[in-house]
Specification:
Elements: E1 2-7, E2 10-12, E3 18-26, E4 32-39, E5 46-52, E6 57-59, E7 67-72, E8 77-82, E9 91-101, E10 104-109, E11 113-117
Parallel strand pairs: 2-11
Antiparallel strand pairs: 1-3, 3-8, 4-5, 4-9, 5-6, 7-8, 9-10, 9-11
């Protein structure tokens, strides 16, 4: 089992910045992918960004150039720096952790943290 604890989030004005962090603990394998998803009211959960243990990143088109994902493998943390925030970025943001062992993929989710972009 892997536990994820998120921090950050809150209310910010359009154009502002926020930083989300997520710490993982438990049985963690050497190869894994950490990332962030978000879900706005009435919409499906969607990918924001992911990063592998080797540092390979993947971003949704709508955050490229504005959000930066990073991780600290030693501390087992992942962060999402969000700049130039827009009202449409308002959503609950979820930390995601994926790892695999042979043919089995394990997926874990954080509890979610609210991000509200409003004037």
């Amino acid at each position: 089992q892997v536990q994820l604890v998120e921090s950050g989030g809150g209310l910010v004005q359009p154009g502002g910045s926020l930083r989300l962090s997520c710490a993982a603990s438990g049985m963690i394998f050497s190869s894994n992918v950490m990332g962030w998803y978000r879900q706005a009211p009435g919409k499906e959960r969607e990918l924001v960004a992911t990063i592998s243990t080797s540092g390979t990143t993947n971003y949704a088109e709508f955050v490229k150039g504005r959000f930066t994902i990073s991780r600290d493998n030693a501390k087992k943390t992942v962060s999402l720096q969000m700049n130039s925030l827009k009202p449409e970025d308002t959503a609950v943001y979820y930390c995601n952790f994926r790892q695999w062992n042979l043919a089995t993929i394990y997926v874990y989710w954080g509890q979610g943290t609210q991000v509200t972009v409003s004037s």
